[in-house]
Write a structure and sequence with these properties.
- This is Glutathione S-transferase.
- It is built from 11 helices and 4 strands, in the order H-E-H-E-H-E-E-H-H-H-H-H-H-H-H.
- By secondary structure, the protein is α+β, with helices and mostly antiparallel strands.
- It has 2 domains: 97 residues, Glutaredoxin (3-Layer(aba) Sandwich); 145 residues, Glutathione S-transferase Yfyf (Class Pi), Chain A, domain 2 (Up-down Bundle).
- It binds glutathione (GSH).
- Glutathione (GSH) binds next to helix 2 and helix 5.
Length: 265
C-alpha cells in the first residue's frame, strides 16, 4: 500500500471515530482551536456562539462549559460516549493527544520537546491570554480610561511579548519548540495578531513579527483563523487609535452588560 493510501485510510478511520463539534467565536481563544483542527486536517462542525448576546451563559452551553466562556467542544469518545471539553488549552491538548499520532504538530509523550510545549502552553494560558485580555479590557471596554489599569496590563503584555521575541531570536526553525509548529505557537498566535487592539505595537518585537507573518502563510492558519467569522485583526491593525476606540464603542455596552449579569450570580 502506498504511503498516500495509508494516510487516507487513517484519516477516514479517524473521521468516523470522531464527532467533533466546536462551540466558538472569532476571538484569540476561539481561533486557536480552529487553526489546530485545520493543521491536523480533521473534520469538525462549528456553532458560532454570539458572545455579544451572552449565549455562552445559557443553561445548555453551561452543560458543556460550566465556566460560560468560548471555546467549548464535544466529541465522540473512544468508548462511544460523548466527551465535553472546555478551556482552550485543554481542548488543544486533547486534540493532539487523540488525533496527532503522526506528530505533525506535536512531540511524543515523555520527550523533552513535549514538556517544552507544555511550558509554553501553560505560559500562554496563565500569562499572555489573561494579561492581554485585561489590556483589551482597560484599553477598549472600560467605561472610563483608567491610566493605571491601561499601563499595568499593556506593560505586562509587552513584557510577555519580549519573552516570546527573545525565545524566537534563539530558535533556528522560527518555531517556539523544535523543528515544527506546535500548540505552543498556535495558542499564542491569535493573541499576537491582535496586539494593536490591546494598544501594543508589534514593530517593537521584530522576531515575533517575523513569526506572526510566517505562520500566516500556512494554509491551516489561513483557513482556521476565519472560522467561524472573518478574522479582521490585520485590517484592524491599520486603524488609528481613534478609529479603534470607535469600533470598541458597540462592544463596550455588551461587555458591561455581561459583567453585570456575572456579578449578580
Ligand atoms: N481561559 C479560557 C478563556 C475563555 C474566554 O475568556 N473566552 C472569551 C472569548 S476569547 C469569552 O468567552 N468571553 C465571553 C464572556 O466573557 O462572557 C480559555 O482559554 O478557554
Amino acid at each position: 500500500m502506498t504511503a498516500r493510501l495509508q494516510k487516507l485510510q487513517t484519516h477516514l478511520k479517524m473521521a468516523s471515530q470522531s464527532d467533533i463539534h466546536l462551540y466558538t467565536a472569532g476571538t484569540p481563544n476561539g481561533i486557536k482551536v480552529t487553526i489546530l483542527l485545520e493543521e491536523l486536517g480533521l473534520q469538525y462542525k462549528t456553532t458560532n456562539i454570539d458572545i455579544s448576546k451572552n449565549t455562552q451563559k445559557e443553561d445548555w452551553f453551561l452543560e458543556i462549559n460550566p465556566n460560560g466562556r468560548i471555546p467549548a467542544m464535544t466529541d465522540k469518545f473512544t468508548d462511544g460516549s460523548t466527551i465535553r471539553l472546555f478551556e482552550s488549552g485543554s481542548i488543544l491538548q486533547y486534540l493532539v493527544d487523540r488525533y496527532d499520532s503522526e506528530h505533525k504538530v506535536s512531540y511524543p509523550h515523555g520527550s523533552k520537546e513535549y514538556y517544552e510545549v507544555n511550558n509554553w502552553l501553560h505560559w500562554q494560558m496563565g500569562g499572555l491570554g489573561p494579561m492581554q485580555g485585561q489590556a483589551n479590557h482597560f484599553t477598549r471596554y472600560a467605561p472610563e480610561k483608567i491610566p493605571y489599569g491601561v499601563s499595568r496590563y499593556q506593560n505586562e503584555t509587552r513584557r510577555l511579548y519580549r519573552v516570546l521575541d527573545t525565545a524566537l531570536a534563539k530558535s533556528e526553525s522560527g518555531f517556539l519548540v523544535g523543528d515544527r509548529v506546535t500548540i505552543a505557537d498556535i495558542s499564542s498566535w491569535g493573541w499576537v495578531s491582535s496586539a494593536k487592539w490591546a494598544g501594543v505595537d508589534i514593530d517593537e518585537f521584530p522576531n515575533l513579527k517575523t513569526w506572526l507573518y510566517k505562520l500566516l502563510e500556512r494554509p491551516g492558519f489561513e483557513k482556521g483563523r476565519h472560522n467561524p467569522t472573518k478574522h479582521t485583526a490585520f485590517e484592524m491593525a491599520k486603524l488609528s487609535e481613534e478609529e479603534l476606540d470607535a469600533k470598541a464603542e458597540g462592544a463596550r455596552n455588551w461587555v458591561q452588560a455581561g459583567m453585570k449579569a456575572d456579578a449578580k450570580k
